[in-house]
Amino acid sequence: MYKIKSFVEEKIKNDTHLLTNFVFAFFPISFILGSFAVNSNLLLFCGLGIYYLKSKILRTKLDWFIKIIFLFFFVVFLSTSLSFFQSLYFQDDSSMSLTRFTKSMLFFRFFLLLITIYYLHQANILKFKYFFITTTFATIFVSLDIIFQYIFGFNTIGLQGHWYNTGFFGDEVIAGGYLQRFSFFAIFFTILTFNNKNYFKFISTSIVVCILGSAILFSGNRMPLIIFIFGLFFILLFDLKIRKIFLTSLVVFLVILNFLISSNDTNKMRLGNFYSDAKGILYVFTEKVFPKLVQDNKNSIVKKDSSTESEKSDSLKFRHQSFHERIFLTAIDTWKFNKILGNGIKAFRFDCLKLKEIPGINMEEDLFPDKKNRLCSQHPHNYYLEVLTETGIVGSIIVLIIAFSFIFFIFKSIKFIKKINFENFILLSAMISLTLETLPLKSTGSLFTTNNATYLILIGSIIGFISGLVGIGG
Predict the structure, then answer these.
(1) Distance CA 375, CA 362 (A)
(2) Which pLDDT score, from 0 to 100, does residue 161 have?
(3) Residue 453: its H or E element
(4) pLDDT recorded at residue 244
(5) How far is residue 224's CA from residue 241's CA, in Å, rounded to a whole number?
(6) pLDDT at residue 287 above 70?
(7) 10 Å Cβ neighbour count for 159?
(8) Rounded CA gap, 116 and 54, in Å?
């Protein structure tokens, strides 16, 4: 124990910034421990960054891209402030609006995280390779724990598994989402580790892909599994030397996945329910973007049915609406309350209740064919709809500018990723992870929660700073 302590002290003495890098690398582990750990990690990292940088912060100009991101944070604060003052003067109870106003100010801590990473990277203090390593080991460890829980009914620390296998996450059904977010770091790290051993590289990568994919399936989270498979296909589109490895791994995993699903009724049912939910989500976006196409399709059903009137009525039976479909439609309705600046952070959970007062809208659990069926929730379950309803058109435009900037630089950078090294592979891992996390039609958690906001800032920073999207300037 004394030798270990001496070794650590010597390392810190030789590298004065090692502690800062360790704290940054601890983020993937803090996501497992919960929001309190993530917030603590964030504040400690920012504190260390400010301590080491000191006056350099005041002398360095912010890049234009950082300024655009700051503008989004300002719009969040502005829209929530306007909502707060409106409730203060026109409503009796403004306590919840005050809470939301406070949260909009605290939301700036994520911008503090961004600029801390920005300055530390520019000062050559922050090394992303430590983050790469801890992400890999944390992801594989969580995967093995979930598989263990699936087989034995409890995980490695004794937590029971029931309908879902949540592993270390306990009551929160988010294990699959965690693995999907960080899985490609583990896959690319495996390739990098066995780079000089082609035989082991193929075998080890296939094993890791199967472990990660199986764990996501056993977690019971359906969307992360589909997104994970999509990510494997997505890599095949790029002209990389490692495509054969991913193709082999994908084929092996799909064979195993087919066996796991066909041999287990629970897995079959979960994916069956996912299919019906996905159709509902697609219907929402099709109806809003191409309303005439949807109406023409309905009319064609009537024309094709040449039976009796009662049979025609049966052909137009009320279409079942999934949970996510009703939530998405609710988000669009609440956005109409304030189209320009939105309703403010965390407003959806309160504004959706106002729809009860509008004639023709049903907010109950049961569905009614003669009404617009909507549903309340804590958030809209989609990043883009949440930005739309809570920051309006202004916030959405800013987010789209940020998104298209990332897309442009991702495609610009991908052609330069030829060598197999830490920097290229962590950049590639981050690019794929962020792309999968922000797919438009994907159901998500709330953008304004600690875990989601921190994750997006971390992964976005890695892409921006390694690819050169963000640099010194102004």
Answers:
(1) 8
(2) 75
(3) helix 450-467
(4) 85
(5) 26
(6) no
(7) 16
(8) 11
